[in-house]
Predict the 3D structure of the following.
Amino acid sequence: MNNERTTMNRKPVFTVPARTILNLQSAFQHKLLCDGPTFSAGSACAYSCAFCYVPSMMNRSAHANVLTESKTRFEDAVIRRQSAAKILHDQLHFSDGRPRFNDPKDTRVVYASPLVDVAANMELVRETIELCRIILESTHWQIRLLSKSNLLPVIARELSDFRSRMIYGVSTGTLDDGVAQAIEAGTPRVSKRIKSLHTLQDEGYRTYGMICPSLPQDDYFAFSREMCRAIRTEKCEHIWCEVINVRGQSMNRTVDALRQAGYDAVAAQLAATSNRSIWEAYARETFLAHTQFIPPQKLRFLQYVTPETRNWWTQQTYRGAILL
Ligand code: SF4
């Protein structure tokens, strides 16, 4: 194990041994983000979004053991997997070197990353390019990348010889640079992210939208209209949308971050959604607004349901609701 105290985006970097980079059977298939496979070269992100669900999911994983000794909180660390490229190559090939997945009809979509941002700085951009190239040269798969950075065009240009198999998306739940900076520590401004999405679209790359996680709004219709205009719905293949979900301390952290940045009214609106019926109304209003601006064949609205709410959401699947 290599615990060199290098830093990345002002966080200490821990490099851990790993058995896999590629997960062939992820739950992300249900969200329609991929056809099962995902890959990740890291276990803790260089960014620090208050609403991030990864710390609650991963802070008891074996990869997080490395943090105990140095008394570092999961959200304050970057965890990278050692020899990521070699491990991925080995997962995609038999021991005699033949590719395992070289059927031209196997064009499934692989998604990255379920755990970290794939382009949070130039070092990670280079790593992502290397990993994508291994997949692209060993399979006929398509790759969906998601980032909160403005660096995806760098990856796209480097992999432009595979442009028909790459799909790029930037995620944001707000167009307000100040709100985003409050709850997505370390990420580039939303305006820069949107500009990078436009660059990808103008250069003819495949793109998708990720309006996520969106906060409670005074006017959901206006919110969706402005968001869809910004990401250019007509140029996106699909648009995923989701409201904020409670995972571990994520909701409290987000409310606190908004308050600390002076967004008291937004924080109060979000805090009120801890009441289950208010949260449900917030989710439904967000969904209904998006149905006005996003065609059903493009909308992929992710919604956690309960036995009480399942029926209403099931009736919305024809408009783009995906029940979780
Ligand atoms: S960019 Fe994604 S993975 Fe990274 S901290 Fe933010 S929500 Fe978590």
Notes: Residues 45, 47-49, 52, 54, 116-117, 148 surround iron/sulfur cluster (CB under 6 Å). The mean pLDDT is 96. The two ends are 37 Å apart (CA to CA).
